[in-house]
Amino acid sequence: MFAELLLTLVTILLLWFILENYFPARKYAPGPFRLPLIGSALSLILNRSTPPFILFQEFSKRYGPVCYISTGQRKMVIIDDFETAKQILNHETWVNRPYNQRIGERSFGKPLGIIFVNGDSWKEMRRFSMRTLRDFGYGKQTSMQAVLDEEVKALISKVELIATCPEPIMEIKHLFTMPVLNILWSMVSNVRTAEDDVKLRKLIKLVDNLAKANPIGGNILSIFPFLRFVFPVWTGHTMAQKCHKELQEYFRDILERRRSEGSYNDDKRDFIDTFIQEIDRHSKIGSNPNHYTDEQFITTITDLFEG
Fold first, then answer.
1. Which cofactor does it need (predicted)?
2. Residue 137 class from Cβ within 10 Å (0-12 exposed, 13-18 middle, 19+ buried)?
3. Which residue of 14, 19, 44, 304 is most buried, as measured by CB atoms within 10 A?
4. Domain range spanning residue 80?
């Protein structure tokens, strides 16, 4: 009985392998061999010491500028050709972003924000975010130059100060994090954050921990997402959930403080004030669907911060 079951299983897996890799009707772009259940994951595991972007370049050299890989439930097409990438990125068909239940866990179980979302919500948030950030100086030479100059001077002063120490040792990892963050954050919250701000330092560490829990090249959850419920700590799911919750609490606190101040009604100082005005306006007129909610605000600000 066992031998028959084993033979049946092997036969099914073999047929799956043949259909996935050789059957003309299922023919995808060239790429690494795909195994049943795990897809091309074995190729990624065997080359796990190689950064994903370098590995993908090697795949494109081996299989062509357009190649296909899959890892469990996730299917990807890698494009390593400028003209093809330009054509695709400028076409309306390809503007959608990936969204699934796992991604939804970072945005209150809904497709919110501007990174992991698609459709009308993404188009509206993209339009609003770009227009509002431009209104407060983003992308404008004259408006941004003063902010850039201030951050460059602060960075040079920091380096010079450390250079005068008996042991001039500098941690490079986050050397440019604060200057870059302050340039964007000045338009988002109209505030320049001090280098030693405890809360912001904690947020930066949270984002670092998120990157470790969800590496850009993917992890075991990219192949078997259900494992986050079986082994939440081992898969990094517990860490990711903790980081998402703390980020959401921080930005919710900012939202509530701005509301309690009430000044956003009289003077739009930054992106946050403008967003709160939109929340109030759409709530008042009863927009349906309503893309401007507290949860949308928190997720969008989190996306900007993580970016």
1. heme
2. middle
3. 44
4. 2-94
